[in-house]
Amino acid sequence: MYLKNKKRPDGRLKATVYIGIKNGRKQYKYVYSATAKELDRKVQDLKLKLGKGIDLTAQRDTFGFWAEQWLDIKKLEVSHKKYLTYRTRKESLSALFNFPIAKLTTGDFQTVLLSIIQENHYKSYTANELKRICVQIMRMAIENRVLDYNCAEAVRLPKRFGDDTEARRALTSEEQTWIRETPHRAQTAAMIMMYAGLRRGELIPLTWEDIDLENKTISITKSVELVGGTVNLKSGGKTYAATRTIYIPQILVDYLAAVPHQRFSLVCPSAKGTIMTDTAWTSMWSSYLKDLNLKYGDWSSCVETKGIRPSKYSPCKKPLLIPRFTAHWLRHPYVKPKTKNILKISEIFHIKDHIAV
Question: Is 163 part of any domain?
């Protein structure tokens, strides 16, 4: 039931609809229209939402309110470093904070996101992450019965933004060969990331006890967060689903079997034999890239070395002539599991591209 008032001074009709109780007080929704027919339609739409269980008392909540709720949950779910990234991304959406979340449209998201992206010169990865955050915030409101439609999902962003060098790619077959055939302190880390798909935070605390060469598995039971110069060890993977057992291919089994080790020692320790810090990892990876560059770079037209491949210990300037790939790129050839806990070898590798004959 609802009450229709007489025409207002501005000529519009008004209906008052009871929508529930909030903080112990009855709540009403006021609907306005120029005609009785339109007013009836709006009232019926409102009742339809009530029938679906939508909490109309919360529809005045702002996007900023739900963004803060979303961030509080993310703080418990992701690493400290990722949380800080999410916090920065959330703040960049401040133009949306004062909008009542129930009144936002796809056009509002489209306009604000494009403005933020262009103003900050964001690349595709960051642009799409901003959209994903908006979608997740709206989805959280839906799960709490504030909305029944996620208008952020319909936002369309350009596939690329200018010189988009931020997007990661898989290593080429040639680059994968470099990893397999170049001995270095970082080779073990690179091989495991490339052929088992481990994250850096899962690899750093990995011990040889976690690797079962006979059954060809690696168990992920712990991970680390690198916060500044501090290494925070925690049980389990990066997320609940990341605690898992991974089947590994024979090429990785053969490689690991040839690496000297002790059962309880770290698989990829620092140069001092201790657990890796952020600085130790950066130093190791920089050294690795330098060795790969010296071995596989095309020095024939290098002005600094007069076309001669330099010695590792030569004092001359050695420009980077190979792509500056990061450790995270190594995970791209790896196919993530379709099941929650166990990987099938057939899902991990395309034989043509990844198995050396």
Answer: no
CB 39 within 8 A of CB 15: yes
User: What's the domain count of the chain?
Assistant: 3
In DSSP terms, 62 is beta-bridged to 100
The tokens describing 145, both together, are 């019965």
* 252/328 same-domain check: yes
* pLDDT(341) > 50: no
Q: Specify if 242 maps to a domain.
A: yes
Contacts of 27 (CB under 8 A, 6+ apart): 18, 19, 20, 21, 56, 57
pLDDT at residue 253 in the model: 96
Q: pTM (2 decimals)?
A: 0.54
CA distances from 258 to 159, 203, 290 (A): 44, 18, 24
Please, are residues 221 and 233 in contact by the beta-carbon 8 Å criterion? Answer: no
Q: Is 160 inside a domain boundary? A: no
**What CATH number is attached to the domain comprising 110?**
1.10.150.130
Q: Are 290 and 207 in the same domain?
A: yes
Q: What is the CATH number of the domain that holds 312?
A: 1.10.443
Other C-beta atoms lying within 10 Å of the C-beta of residue 185: 14
- pLDDT 10s digits, 184-205: 999 999 999 999 989 888 999 9
Residue 233: pLDDT over 70: yes
Residues 316 and 266 in one domain: yes
Residue 161 lies in a domain: no
Both structure tokens of 146: 């504030």
Please state whether 163 falls in left (phi above 0), alpha (psi between -120 and 50) or beta: beta
- Greater confidence, 63 or 329? 63
